[in-house]
């Protein structure tokens, strides 16, 4: 099963790149993607495809990892095409709304941006383990000690959130399977019935997540966890390939800004 936030262990140049470089690159690329035009989005898509192949991750794996957000994207696309004023392309007789050409273009353009952002974030989590993300965040957030904020605690919270994303997916899948085994077929019911069933299914999901969180707290206490700075067996050190990767991303960002 393909999950958002799932780390895939492969021997590739992208996996061995310093996590600080990857994290900063994704953040900078995300900001530029929101500013660039259609040509820049095409260049970004080709760039992501290239580094996906270099990371020895199949493009289909990366694409399917975004599957949980497809319904949200579909709803967002409908909002764009039905609420954006412009030249009418089609109308729905029972409902006083119409599909506009501008809405179709804006919906496609904006969803392309969001989808590329999601692909970049998924590629980051697929090629970077949770401990590496924690180490990178702790190093990057160290200036926060000026305002007495622990960089390690902040990085740990982000790491735990990333760890719980695939857990939420697995728990929801198990609940759906258990409901289907008891004769609850959501594919063959109406929208109102689906909403009612989702409300009922959310209760065991919340209870399972609370139980998992309690187990995690107990495991941390059993291992003597105490808040504060940490040392690691392998410290992060930048090498030549990391500088080359940073330069490549910088060139891409400058190109995207030029195409904006």
Output the keywords:
single chain, 260 residues, mainly alpha, 2 domains, two-stranded antiparallel sheet, 10 helices, 2 strands, globular
Overview of this structure, please?
The protein has 260 residues and is mainly alpha-helical. It has helices at 13-16, 19-33, 38-54, 59-64, 70-83, 101-127, 130-140, 151-181, 191-222, 240-259, and strands spanning 88-92, 97-100. It is built from 10 helices and 2 strands, in the order H-H-H-H-H-E-E-H-H-H-H-H. Helices cover 68% and strands 3% of the residues. It folds into 2 domains: 12-150 and 240-260, no CATH class; 165-228, no CATH class.
Q: Give the termini distance in whole angstroms.
A: 37 Å
The percent of residues in helical segments reads 55-70%
- Low-confidence parts, pLDDT < 50 over ≥5 residues? none
Q: Taking all residues together, what is the mean pLDDT?
A: 82
Helix/strand order: HHHHHEEHHHHH
Please compute the radius of gyration using only Cα atoms.
22 Å
Q: Pairing-aware structural class of the strands and helices? A: mainly alpha
| Lateral strand order in the biggest sheet | 1-2
Number of strands: 2
How many helices? Answer: 10
Which shape, going by the Cα principal axes? globular
């Amino acid at each position: 099963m393909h999950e958002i936030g799932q780390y895939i262990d492969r021997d590739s140049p992208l996996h061995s790149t310093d996590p600080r470089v990857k994290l900063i690159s994704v953040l900078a690329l995300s900001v530029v993607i929101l500013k660039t035009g259609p040509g820049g989005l095409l260049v970004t898509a080709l760039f992501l495809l290239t580094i996906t192949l270099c990371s020895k991750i199949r493009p289909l794996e990366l694409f399917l990892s975004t599957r949980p957000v497809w319904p949200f994207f579909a709803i967002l696309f409908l909002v764009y095409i039905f609420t954006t004023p412009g030249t009418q392309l089609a109308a729905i007789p029972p409902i006083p709304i119409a599909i506009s050409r501008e809405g179709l273009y804006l919906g496609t353009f904006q969803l392309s941006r969001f989808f590329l952002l999601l692909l970049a974030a998924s590629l980051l989590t697929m090629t970077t383990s949770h401990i590496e993300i924690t180490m990178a965040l702790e190093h990057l957030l160290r200036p926060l000690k000026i305002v007495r904020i622990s960089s390690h605690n902040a990085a740990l919270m982000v790491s735990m959130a990333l760890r719980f994303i695939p857990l939420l997916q697995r728990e929801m899948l198990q609940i759906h399977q258990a409901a289907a085994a008891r004769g609850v077929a959501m594919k063959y019911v109406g929208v109102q019935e689906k909403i009612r069933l989702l409300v009922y299914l959310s209760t065991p999901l919340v209870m399972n997540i609370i139980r998992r969180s309690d187990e995690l707290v107990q495991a941390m206490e059993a291992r003597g966890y105490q808040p504060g700075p940490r040392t690691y067996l392998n410290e992060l050190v930048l090498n030549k390939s990391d500088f080359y990767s940073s330069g490549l991303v910088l060139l891409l960002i400058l190109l995207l800004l030029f195409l904006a």
